[in-house]
Design a protein that fits this description.
Elements lengths: L1 E2 L14 E4 L3 E5 H7 L8 H16 L39 H4 L10 H9 L4
Parallel strand pairs: 1-3
Antiparallel strand pairs: 2-3
The chain binds zinc ion (2 copies).
One zinc ion binds next to helix 2.
């Protein structure tokens, strides 16, 4: 679902770009995405939106440790269901609009790292 609004959990230091719900659905906070990509130093809206959609979709696939078992432990101990690798698509800050300029500066969508791909393969992925 694409919401014309923002999360009620937003704070001064964290704005939530998307949230997944169980293994069935996710919400994209379009107002927050537009605000985060409006800045001249910020990421393009296409990159930001694509990244958040992929991140939430991977939660639906069970990453990280959210229904898909880990081959090796790489779940962030303080941010459950997220990867410890800060270059991975499943790093927790990907969901934070206040951080978007940091990871999106290369105008590239972050990829899953080897640990996350291994988990999906072990769960039947190709
Ligand atoms: Zn997430
Ligand atoms: Zn990962």
């Amino acid at each position: 679902m694409f919401l014309n609004g923002k999360s009620s959990s937003d704070t001064d230091t964290e704005t939530i770009l998307g949230t997944s719900y169980r293994n069935t659905s996710f919400v994209i906070f379009e107002e927050t995405i537009q605000a985060a990509s409006n800045d001249i130093l910020g990421p393009s809206k296409i990159i930001l939106e694509s990244t958040v959609i992929l991140h939430e979709f991977c939660h639906l696939l069970g990453l990280v440790n959210l229904g898909t078992s880990m081959v090796v432990n790489h779940e962030d101990a303080t941010h459950s269901a997220h990867c410890t690798n800060e270059n991975c698509l499943m790093y927790y800050l990907i969901e934070n609009g206040k951080n978007a300029h940091h990871w999106a500066k290369n105008e590239q969508i972050p990829q899953l790292d080897a640990n996350c791909i291994d988990d999906l393969r072990a769960n039947g992925g190709k």
